[in-house]
Amino acid sequence: MKKWFVTWYTPEYKEWARKTEGGYFLVIIRKEPKNFLCVRAKLIMGEKGLPGVEIIEEQNLQSKRKAQRVTRGWMKPFS
What we know:
- By secondary structure, this protein is α+β, with helices and mostly antiparallel strands.
- The chain contains 1 helix and 5 strands, in the order E-E-E-E-E-H.
- Helix content is 15%, strand content 53%.
C-alpha cells in the first residue's frame, strides 16, 4: 500500500504527498490572511526538468478546523 508522507510542515503551509503512477498526489493547506486555501493536485514527473502541477480541486475555508476536515477527507480513500 502506498502511504502519505509529509513534504512540508510550517504554521502557514502544510503539504502531504502520496506516490502515484507518473508522479505524486498532493494535499495542501495554506494559511492566507483571511482564510485557509485547501488544494488537491497531481505533481507530474517528466523525463527531465521540473515537474508539472495539475490542480484537481481548490477550496477557500474560514477556519483551520474546516480545512483539516476537508484535507483528511481527500486523504482517507487512499489511506
